[in-house]
Design a protein that fits this description.
Elements lengths: L17 E7 L3 H17 L3 E7 L5 H8 L5 E9 L5 H20 L3 E2 L2 E4 L2 H27 L1
Parallel strand pairs: 1-2, 1-3, 3-4, 3-5
Helix pairs in contact: 1-4, 2-3
Length: about 150
């Protein structure tokens, strides 16, 4: 059963906000539905956004670091699927550590949207609604910062 939280977005017009979206090329069949789901929410709230694509999850922090200064927040979208080697653990930990550090460094919301799953089926299932959750999280934090 999927759990979700209801975020009350008092402000439905975020046209004065600009969000950076950094997505991966790797696992594109999983990422594309997440991006579409994310953009629905951002468009509904009149958010300005720019999307940049990087090869994989390991490169997400680099691109966020390079681009975030001209944005109010960032949303990261990727998928790391467990395999038979330690690669999953190394990339998952490195990406998550760096993404949270960027939010602290720049004092801006940087939303962690890198799926870490045991298999493709889990990733596909989670990708169906994860994009909207990530967008809502970013908007909620921006709303709270402005409160």
């Amino acid at each position: 059963m999927k759990k979700s939280i209801q975020l009350n977005l008092d402000n439905s017009d975020f046209s004065d906000k600009k969000i950076l979206i950094v997505k991966t090329k790797w696992n594109e069949e999983i990422i594309d539905p997440m991006v579409e789901d994310c953009l629905k929410v951002l468009n509904n709230h009149k958010v300005n956004f720019s999307t940049f694509t990087v090869p994989g999850a390991f490169e997400i922090p680099f691109m966020v670091n390079e681009k975030i200064e001209s944005f109010d927040a960032a949303i990261t979208l990727g998928a790391i699927i467990k395999g038979e080697t330690p690669h999953f653990d190394i990339i998952s930990q490195s990406a998550s550590d760096q993404i949270i550090n960027l939010g602290i460094k720049f004092k801006k919301p940087v939303i962690f949207g890198v799926l870490t799953t045991n298999n493709n089926e889990q990733a596909i299932e989670r990708a169906k609604t994860k994009g909207s959750e990530l967008a809502e999280s970013a908007l909620y934090l921006l709303n709270e910062i402005d409160a």
